[in-house]
């Protein structure tokens, strides 16, 4: 066993195999008309968070659910350069965690008749966030949010978690996840060598930290 394999965190909590239909059923159980609930999806990079979140919201429909990803709170590249953190973008301290926590608190308090809240969206093509890009109508009862650090117990991440009703941890096979990650980096312009280096370097460091938080999730699920 090489050093990297020995450092991989083993998730010992029971992992539930679940279909999308089952996830939709569980999410539907959270919906209470006239109230606001928030469902969080977390997991290591390339665990499938964005895909599953988008599928969930599409299945539930726009009158029931809206997707607000954590990635909108990436610090701008210029800020990361000033902080000396650009070379590890994606780590927990390269996000505006306080801003994200405040957004979730605002969304949690939103009730039918309140003004629309606008959230930022991260654009991978330009590696930057765009403010006020996601409208969240007050009448939509369920907000689905997804991101790496929902279960981290430092900085403002616990404040964000306190606004979320349930957090589900996505736990695909590690080799599948790493392969997805390399392909994603290549799709957004990295060479094969750079994609591999980033996936097994900064991304893998983040993955170990994220996987160490899995035991705090309400569910740990593996989706085909």
UniProtKB/TrEMBL annotation:
Domain Phosphoribulokinase/uridine kinase: 38-222
InterPro entries tied to this protein: P-loop_NTPase, PRK/URK
Coiled-coil parts of chain: none
One Pfam family named in its UniProt record: PRK
Keywords, in A-Z order: Kinase, Transferase
Domain of life: Bacteria
Any one GO molecular-function label of the UniProt entry: ATP binding
Transferase is among the record's keywords: yes
Gene3D superfamilies: P-loop containing nucleotide triphosphate hydrolases (3.40.50.300)
Protein name: Putative fructose transport system kinase [Thermobispora bispora DSM]
């Amino acid at each position: 066993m090489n050093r990297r394999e020995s450092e991989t965190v083993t998730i010992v909590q029971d992992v539930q195999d679940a279909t999308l239909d089952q996830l939709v059923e569980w999410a539907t159980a959270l919906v209470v008309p006239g109230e606001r609930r928030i469902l969080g999806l977390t997991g290591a990079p390339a665990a499938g968070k964005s895909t599953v979140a988008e599928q969930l919201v599409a299945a539930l429909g726009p009158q029931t659910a809206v997707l607000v990803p954590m990635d909108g709170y990436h610090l701008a590249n210029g800020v990361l350069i000033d902080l000396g953190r650009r070379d590890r973008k994606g780590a927990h301290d390269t996000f505006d965690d306080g801003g994200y926590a405040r957004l979730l608190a605002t969304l949690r308090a939103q009730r039918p008749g309140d003004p629309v809240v606008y959230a930022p969206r991260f654009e991978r093509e330009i590696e930057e966030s765009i403010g006020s890009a996601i409208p969240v109508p007050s009448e939509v009862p369920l907000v689905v949010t997804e991101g790496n650090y929902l279960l981290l117990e430092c900085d403002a991440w616990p404040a964000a978690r306190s606004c979320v009703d349930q957090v589900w941890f996505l736990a695909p096979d590690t080799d599948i996840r790493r392969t997805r990650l390399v392909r994603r980096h290549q799709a957004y312009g990295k060479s094969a060598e750079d994609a591999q280096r980033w996936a097994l370097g900064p991304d893998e460091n983040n993955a170990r930290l994220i996987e160490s938080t899995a035991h705090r999730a309400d569910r740990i699920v593996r989706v085909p």
